[in-house]
Amino acid sequence: MLISNYKLVKTINYKSETYIGDPLNAIKVFNEKEVDEIIVLDINASRKKQEPNYDFIYTLAGECFMPLTYGGGISNLDQARQIFSLGVEKIALESSAIHDHKLIYDLTQKYGSQAITTSISVKKRIFSKNYNYSYSSSSAKKVDLINHVKKLIKLGVGEILLTSIDFEGTQTGLDLRLLKMIKEIVPVPLIIHGGVGKISDIRDGFLHGADAVGVGSYFVFSGPHRAVLISYLSKQDREFISTELGPYGTNL
Description:
Layout: E1 2-4, E2 7-12, E3 15-21, H1 23-32, E4 38-42, H2 54-63, E5 68-71, H3 77-85, E6 90-93, H4 95-99, H5 101-111, E7 116-124, E8 130-132, E9 143-144, H6 145-155, E10 159-164, H7 176-183, E11 190-193, H8 199-207, E12 212-214, E13 221-222, E14 227-228, H9 235-245
Parallel strand pairs: 1-4, 4-5, 5-6, 6-7, 7-10, 10-11, 11-12
Antiparallel strand pairs: 1-2, 2-3, 7-8, 8-9, 13-14
Helix pairs in contact: 8-9
């Protein structure tokens, strides 16, 4: 769930925000549909150097019946402490993961690797090389992707949320090449995000090594005109994916 000015929005390539609705109402619907986990990212907090809104996070956490990960505006240990105290299971960091390696290390030491997710947004550049791109920063931040990931692993992060900016919001399928490249070098759970437009895309993510698949647009839009409709995988959808995955689908 992408949050902008405390409203639920969706983007395409992290641009052109489309208003979806009240995030609390969306969470209530996701509760009813038995969603496995929700990741809430405030896409303006770090970019505008805003403090996390603890009252807002507390309200979100109070509505969630499932594990909640929150990211946005986290730049020090005290902020992380307050967010965890509100009932959030994991925190996600992107800008700090680039600019403040000491903070990442301190967080993993204090709260454990399992509580720290790093968000990595990747955009293709010239000559088809991949660079890390910090969407939260005021300007693009080019970082060698492979080196960046290896540093994060050494710092002790317990999970990586990998987003392809070129695929984000397009519903044209996942960036499987990017997924395979990063999966080969990380020993921690890897969430691939960006591009899911049909059930088989989710299946493909698992088949290509993802430990989880992050889905945004596919669960909030319906039909060719992208009408807003909060949805989730039906029992039949899950059975289809599990069948397609064979033994890999036993935990789905």
